[in-house]
Design brief:
Blueprint: H1 12-18, H2 35-48, H3 62-74, H4 77-91, E1 98-108, E2 143-145, E3 148-157, E4 163-170, H5 179-184, E5 202-204, H6 212-220, E6 224-226, H7 231-239, H8 252-255, H9 259-268, H10 272-275, E7 276-277, H11 282-302
Parallel strand pairs: 1-5, 1-7, 5-6
Antiparallel strand pairs: 1-3, 2-3, 3-4
Helix pairs in contact: 2-3, 4-11
Length: 305
């Protein structure tokens, strides 16, 4: 029987890559409903941004799609799937350890408001670098900025423009304040054991990350920084004369590669539930980022001979 793949659904190559990684039973000894059918339903909702109740019947009951989405958000399955494909690609030397870091803002739909304050899956708890959420800003990572209520996604991509790590904050949180937390989220285990790889060779970032604290952090870990210095920092250093020290090294040719992260944001925001946040919980919105990132990785793996 030939499986008809509709637009936006998992291709045969993508399905072959992740099928072995999916759980066989639901933890209570019962078989899951067909994983591929349900995953395609979740992807349909992520791509269109439609309410869960509008998921087409060909993907099964919408309640099944939502419960699978909710359950795998809670147990970390989405993050493990993304990590697994990263490990697979790194094992054959495909990951380019020349990273770029930046953030993008998403407007928050009115349906995203109203989550219970202090929810343990939200943003009102203490920050944990491993969970991809920052305790800064309003609850559930919704903040008020010039564009209204917004959420900000902070992302690190490798040298091909594929996401390595991400976290979610309120839209009015400055990029530099969560830099260390985002860097600590980079973790690629070694298939043969040993310490996971966590540090790139080079990090490209825009002027928002030009802070002494950030440059010291990178220097202490042997990471080459390619970050332009803002005009006010340059003027301040010149006013101090010889006491201002030498300007930080900057490679303008290498910096041109930073456009990869902007292109990554464009690809992620082709999923409408990423471009506009509809989820009440910050963890659910981040799960959408993880799944969209997984699809980008699977597309790359599909092209790998």
């Amino acid at each position: 029987m030939v499986c008809v793949v509709r637009r936006g659904e998992l291709t045969e190559a993508a399905w072959a890559a992740i099928e072995p990684l999916l759980p066989v039973t639901d933890g209570r000894g019962r078989q899951w409903r067909d994983h591929r059918q349900v995953l395609n339903g979740i992807l349909w909702r992520l791509r269109t941004g439609a309410p869960w109740r509008d998921v087409p019947e060909r993907y099964g009951p919408w309640q099944t799609c939502y419960e699978r989405w909710k359950r795998w958000d809670g147990d970390g399955t989405w993050a493990r799937l993304l990590e697994a494909v990263q490990v697979k690609d790194d094992a054959v030397g495909n990951i380019e350890w020349r990273f770029s870091i930046d953030s993008t803002v998403a407007r928050t739909h009115q349906h995203a408001a109203g989550a219970q304050k202090g929810d343990p899956t939200g943003d009102d708890r203490q920050s944990d670098p491993s969970d991809g959420q920052s305790g800064q800003g309003a609850g559930q990572a919704i903040g008020r900025s010039r564009g209204g209520l917004t959420t900000k996604a902070h992302v690190i991509v490798e040298g091909r423009g594929l996401p390595m790590a991400m976290l979610v904050t309120a839209g009015n949180v400055h990029d530099s304040t969560v830099f260390e937390q985002l860097m600590q989220a980079v973790r690629v285990p070694r298939p043969g054991g040993g310490r996971p790889r966590t540090t790139p060779e080079v990090l490209l970032a825009d002027k928002a990350y030009s802070a002494r604290r950030i440059r010291s952090y990178l220097r202490a870990r042997g990471i080459k920084a390619c970050i332009p210095q803002p005009a006010d920092q340059q003027a301040h250093r010149k006013r101090k004369g010889s006491k201002g020290g030498r300007p930080p090294t900057f490679d303008p040719v290498l910096y041109q590669r930073r456009n990869l992260i902007e292109r990554c944001f464009n690809r992620l925001k082709q999923f409408r539930a990423i471009a506009t946040r509809f989820d009440k919980l910050a963890s659910r919105y981040r799960s959408g980022l993880l799944l969209a990132s997984l699809i980008l990785w699977l597309r790359e793996l599909s092209d790998t001979p």
